[in-house]
Amino acid sequence: MAILGLGHTGLWVTDLPAMRDFYERVIGLTVTDEDEEQGIVFFSARPDVEHHEFVLQRGRTAPPGSMLPHQISWRVDSVETLQAYHERFKEEGVPIQQEVTHGNAYGIYFFDPEGNRGEVYLRIERDVRQPFRKSLNLEQPVEAVHAEAERLLNDGGPAYQPATWTPVPDSAQAGADGLCKPGLRAFSRDGYDSRWERTWQAGDVGLTLWGRLAIRTGRAPTSRI
């Protein structure tokens, strides 16, 4: 007796229409079935193979900022597709935790409208001891992405370099202590400030949810993922 593989997973949600729109339109999954009365939607990336790989159902009871799923990861087929998600996430204002190489994969860690962490990733056919995580610049030609990933494998620095987003107290300080990098936007106590973009600082585990959730909830949770 053996497990053949992971069949599907799902999330309890608060705002089902917003979450459905995100996973259908932004992530690109296909809705294969739904029941409005039960408040449930079924999704698949391969509807001709799997009826559903992902489920959303109304009924979340955890407050905003709670640490629930560690991550839900979606595999893509090329660096070009990963770069297309990089651009789509910027256009949609999707919060990004970090764009990385794991040595055996390149990925983008993002947050859905209710703060669940997801990842779109490209598998790389090589054996690299985990955890390995370093920031990777996807805003360069494909060959340069591969070259940078190779360099990061052998640069002698710490193998695990997760990123932390530290919210700024007001918009005047946004970007003051970090290089600007597209897609990594700073927040102030007044909400999203589109004039500023701030880099991630490597070395700390997690992401402060304060700025992103303050916009949606009107308060400042302090939980970290």
Share of β-strand residues: 25-35%
Sheet with most strands: 5 strands, mixed
Q: Helix share of residues?
A: 10-25%
Individual helix count: 4
Order of helices and strands: EHEEEEHEEEEHEEEEH
Rg, rounded, reads 18 Å
Spans of 5+ residues with little confidence (pLDDT < 50)? 165-225
Termini, distance in Å?
Answer: 35 Å
Q: What is the general shape?
A: globular
Strand order of the largest sheet: 5-8-7-6-9
**Strand segment count:** 13
Specify the structural class: alpha+beta
Mean pLDDT: 78
Please write out the topology:
Blueprint: E1 9-13, H1 16-26, E2 30-35, E3 40-44, E4 54-58, E5 72-76, H2 79-92, E6 96-101, E7 105-111, E8 117-123, E9 134-135, H3 142-153, E10 163-164, E11 185-188, E12 191-197, E13 201-202, H4 210-217
Describe it for me?
The protein has a five-stranded mixed β-sheet with strand order 5-8-7-6-9, covered by helices on one side. Strands 1-4-3-2 form a four-stranded mixed β-sheet, with helices on one face. Helix content is 20%, strand content 28%. Mean pLDDT is 78; it is low at 165-225. Among the domains are: 8-59, 2,3-Dihydroxybiphenyl 1,2-Dioxygenase, domain 1, CATH 3.10.180.10; 163-217, no CATH class. It starts with 8 loop residues before the first strand and ends in an 8-residue tail after the last helix. It has 225 residues and is α+β, with helices and mostly antiparallel strands.
